[in-house]
Structures are given as C-alpha cells and as structure tokens.
Amino acid sequence: MGRAERGAGRVSEDRVLLAHGDGGELMAELIERVFVSRLGTGDPPGDDSARLEASGRLAFTTDAFVVDPIFFPGGDIGKLAVCGTVNDLAAAGARPLALSAGFILEEGLLFSDLERVVDSMAAAARESGTRVICGDTKVVPRGGADQIYITTSGVGEVPAGVEVSGAGARPGDVVIVSGSLGDHGLAVLSRREGLEFESPIVSDCAPLAGLVGELLAACSGVHVLRDPTRGGLATVLNEIASQSQATIELEESAVPVGESVAAACELLGLDPLYAANEGKMVVVIPEPEAEAALSALRRHPLGEQASAIGRVLEGGEPRGGEPPGGEARVLLRTVLGTHRILDRHVGEQMPRIC
Amino acid sequence: MCLAVPMKVIEIEGPMAQVEESGVRRSARVDLVEGIKVGDYVIVHAGIAIDRLEPEEAAETLKLFAELFPSEMGAVEADGAAGRAEKS
Amino acid sequence: MEQLAALRNPELVRRLAQELRGLAVPAATLMEVCGTHTVAIARHGLREALPDGVRLIAGPGCPVCVTPQEEIDWFLALGGLEGVTLATFGDMVRVPGSERSLEQARAEGAEVLVVYSPMDAVEAAARRPERQVVFFGIGFETTAPAVALAVMEARDRGLRNFSVLCAHKLIPPAMMALLESEIAVDGFICPGHVSVIIGSQAYLPVSRRGKPCVVTGFEAVDVLRAVQMLLTQIIEGRSEVEVEYRRAVRPQGNIKAQEALARTFRVVDARWRGLGEIPGSGYELAEEFAEFDATKRFDIELPPAKEPVGCRCGDVLRGAIEPSECGLFGKACTPRNPVGACMVSSEGACQAHYRYRGTSWDVRNEEQDG
Known about the structure:
heterotrimer; A: alpha+beta; CATH 3.30.1330.10; Phosphoribosyl-aminoimidazole Synthetase, Chain A, domain 2; 7-stranded mixed sheet; B: 5 strands
C-alpha cells in the first residue's frame, strides 16, 4: 500500500485515520470504497435521507453493537449488527424493509478489518432479503472506541392479522425455543483475552426472518416472539412474564444446550440460561397450535432443534405467600421435580472459581 | 469455592497438558498430579489439575447405587452409560 | 467420562431423594461447609428432599464471603497506585469494600484484569513489564496450589512485577473453631475439592469430637447420598469420617500438592469475616518467596475497615442465622444492590437463598411427575 497523496484523494493507507471522518474527500473515498461498493447506494443515491414505500403497520427498531472481540467463531460485529436488527423486527412478526447503519470507527482500525465487517453485513442483509439504505460514519481518536461500534436501525412491515407482543402470553400457552442455547455467548467468551481455550463452539448468529415467516404461515395464533440475546433465555422470559402479568414455568430437562456449551459453562462457572443467543427465537403459542409450531420450525434449517420447554401457568398464588424480593415470575422445575425461581441476572457473567 | 471440572488429558508437554471435555479444550498445569499420563481424567480448577479422577472408583459408586436401586440402574444401563456397573 | 453421565441420571436422583424423605430420623442440623455445595443444594432444590426435622445450614465455605473487609480495602487501595494492574478471579469484582467495590474502582479508572487462573496473571505481568500486576489470592486449599504454582513460575521467570496479596484460608481450623462456638451442628458435609488436596483424614479431629463427617462431590446424587450417610451415622451413634466422593478423594489427599503448599506458604493466624481470628487458619508467603508478597512490596495506610450497618454476614457465615433472619435480606440487600459479601458472591448463602429461593407453588404437573 502506497502513501496517500493529498489532492489525489486516494485511499491507500491501511488504517483508518481521523481525516477519514472529517467530511472531506478522504471521507467520501472511504464511503464509496468501503460502504457503497458493498452495501449499495442509498435510495435515492447521495441524498441525506433514504425514502421508502410502505403500507400497513410498521415495526421500527434500533440496536447498538460493541462486541469484543469483533471477530469470533461463527461471525463478526457486522453480521451481528444486521442479524440483531432483523431479528428484532422478526420478533414483531415483521418482514424487514430496510436498515440503516451508523459506524463509529477508532483511529487506527485496519481497513482490512473494516472491509471484512462490512462484507459480512452485506451478506447478512442479502440473506435476510433486505438492504442497508442509509448510514453514517464518524472517526474518533485512538482509545475513543474499541475498534468499531455499529448502530443499526430497521424498519419492517407487519403482515395483516399478525399480533405478537411481549404482553400476549396467556395461561395455558406453550413456550418453545427454536434451538440450543448459549452458543453465541460462549463462542465470544472463548475468544476473549484471558480465556484461551480451543472449543468448537460457534456463534449461532443468523437472521431469523425466514424462520419466523414459516412459523407465521403455519400458525395463526402466535402470541409472543422474542429473541433471547444479552441476558439469555432467563432474562427474556422474565420480561415476557412481567409484560404479560403471567407466571412461566420452565422445564429444566427440556431446555436444549449443546454438549460443548454445557461443558464450557461448567468450566467457567456460567449458566447457559443466561448466556447470549443471536440466532434463536422464543415462541409463546396456545397449546392447540404448539405441535404445528414445532413442525414448522423444525422444517427450517435454523429451527431443527426447536423444543417445547415450558408453559404459562394457570392463575394461582404460591403457598406461604410471596417470597422475599418480590414476585416469582419465572419458575424452573428441576430434574428432581422441585421448583426454584429464575430471576434476571445481575452483573456481568464472569469466569469464577466458586 | 470448588468449581472444578473433570477433563481428559489429550497431550502432555512438560508441566502443561491439553485437557478436553465434550469438545472444549484448555491447557492446564498437571505437575501436581503424580504419574500423570495421556488418557487420564483429571479435575481442573483455576487452570490446574488438582488430582486424577478414578474411573474404577466412579464405577464402584455406580455399583453401590445399582445395589440400592436396581430398577433405576436398569434405566441407566439401557442408556448404555454405565457399562461397568453390575446388577446384583 | 461416561460414569459421570450415569451419576446425573434423573431417575437415580429422584429415587435417592425419595429414599431420603422416607428415612425415619431424629431432628438433625447438618452443615455444608463448602459454598459450591450450598449452590448445588439450592440449585437442585435438595432441601425439599430432606426428611422432616433435618436442617441444612451453610457454613463459612465461600472464600469471597470470608475475606475480611480490611483485605478487600487493601487490594482496592493498590488499584489507586500508579502503574498497578489488579488481577483477580471474577468472584471478587462486585464485593463491596468499605468505600467501594472493584467494579466501581474500575469505573473510576483502576486497571482490573479478571482471570480464570493465577497463571494468566503471571502471563499478563510477563507481557507488560511496565505494570505491577498484583493478584488477589483468595480461596481455600483447592485454590492455593494454583497460586503456589503461579508464584513459583514468576520466580523461575525472574519477574519483578508480579506479586500476590495472600488471603488464603484453611478449612479444618475453621471447622474446629465452629465446634468451639455455640453453633449446634450434628454433622458436616465436607468440601469435595478441598479434600482432594488435604485428604479426608484431615477431618479426623472433627469426627473425634463427636461430629460425623462425610466428604462428598457436587452432583445431586453425591449430596443426597452424603446426607443419607450422615443421618445413618447419627442413627447408629457413630462419628466417623466417611468418603462419598471416592472417585476423587483419598485419605491422605494429594501429597505433591501439599508439598507445593508447604514450600510456598507458611501457616499463620488469620481473620475471617464472621468468625474473627482463628489460629493457624491462613497462609502467608514463605520467606523464600517474600519478594512476591504484595504486603511487603507496597506500603498502604488505611483507615479501619467499616462494616455496613445492619449487615449480618458474620452471623450467616457462622451458621448462627439463616439469611432470611437478617433484617436487610431481600429488602435493602439484594443481588442487584448487595450490602454484604454473602449477597454478592454467587456462593454466598444469602445469594443462594435469594436466587434459588424455593417456592411451594402449587403446580399442576407435579401430578405428572412419576
């Protein structure tokens, strides 16, 4: 790579410089060479805002991604960003229409890394049947960001008749998860500094719009869809239980966890119920349609291990009153048949000796 | 206090070994285990093997349970997971 | 290991639990000494499997919880020094010192490295000679050998920028101290992995004082069997040390590990949160390794440690009260806003009681269960 020549505006450095964010020629070159060439132009090209045609109800979501390391087994921050937003739209039952992407780049970021990340975004967008149609880039001085942060927003269209919401869980509903838990969280941890071990754990990062589409085509009565990302299944079930003012019972032996993930969790003292997932969906559906839902999910490559893992309970009060610390929203039925309460997790999940 | 995991020794190089469990691999110090060899099972805590795990003793424990609860251990054998446990 | 899979068979666990409930026993109070046992019991809801009249109380087996305030304060104060990197197991990050926790100190600019193994801290020191890496040596006899190896490694590599704040504590002296106190315990569930190192014979002084001991592992089956063995001893009027965890524990323990410990550390009196000073219950780095002793390398003056008002961690650790008997439990003190170490630590009795709180929820599919 040769040195940049001022005036010729050739982007030949191998690292991102502050000047790449200053709005001038170097920035225009960066945008063209890195983003437009891979993600396509805005729509209309060159305008400050993209335009969309849409009818019916829209879903709108935004997410920020700061994962470290930016490359991990099974994906990278770019793939994560697109899938994360597409999946949030899918959790509303929405088909993705378009995405936006904002980038904060750290001075010194390797161009090759940046290009690799944007390549992943383009591939994930294509796989989801959508595009990034607008975006923004800023460069901060070294130390001001950890290599690259990405914020994505997404707009989607909710088909008529689809009413899914976290508040929709009803007594008697079955709780289903589309596959095994903990793959993403452990894949990332396995690469992070200080936890050097070889494991075949690969992030499950994947866009789920197709999977959800199949499910909604086969089942008309889906009540809740939610993707269990940070905080894992336990957190998401607590959210649903809280929004729906319901109590959920989870069957410990029914929760699918890959062998390697289980082993890695034991080694590090982590609980797979709290580990992040980036390619899984939780489905809450009335009992009569549960079988149909499982079949629809299992027919799809991303839902082959779909399992029924619990139910929304009929009303009732715990004997002996409320335990300290408030309502028991999510209960775990252990292998012994005893119950314990599954709270949201507090604090980071860190490797422990105890 | 004692989070420790049984793992199998795959490779030994001086005081270090590669240990593995269900596809998860780590390196661990094994120089505190007398007569360590490849194929041994060890208990790994905070990056070191604190001692060997004895499969024969584990089998003895299973045998004991088989004597106490023959019907449940029948279920265990059907799994194929307790090859060495003998039914009384 | 295939035998381990067999030990986890749910049928076996259920059957053993059933057996246990059917046992006709006098009332008894058993203490599980090890924090990992406290968690295993809570996680599997094993208390519900106990026969009526049998009580399980948690002892001082959580290394984070028993580390006294002044040791935590000392470690945190080091983080304020220029060029110091604090290295620690993840367990310590949220534990509150008198003024703040490690987590808060990190947010204020202290450099904190969370490691899985003390070896990782040694590597960090080797990689960054411009930093002074101080490792917080907490843990019992299970963990001390790893720290011993790390110190020897640092010495062999000639590292001048690695040191250890040695806060290790020893289990048998603590058990003897508990026997001296007024706590009424009828038998002990002894820690599995501490015993791998020290050997089951280490508990003979306890059993000779009339308290049965069973050394057990961490599967539900192990713990249930240990309770059964203890109750059987009590019924038969015996007081012995028995080993349930035979696949890992020998009477004499791991001699090589014991030798490494004897070479690297010397036994000293130590202060425990809740139990006060117990003679011969802690480690200090031996003379040969004094250069790696953080207390000798750094000069820190601290005001006296402050225990939070109303915190009864000490009483919980002694087994004198249940967590729910502390006025702060579940109200001012929760995992989200912990006041004391017993609520912060994943093995603290308070956190175990809170997070894994059992419920007698009346659930339909209890009938479905065989």
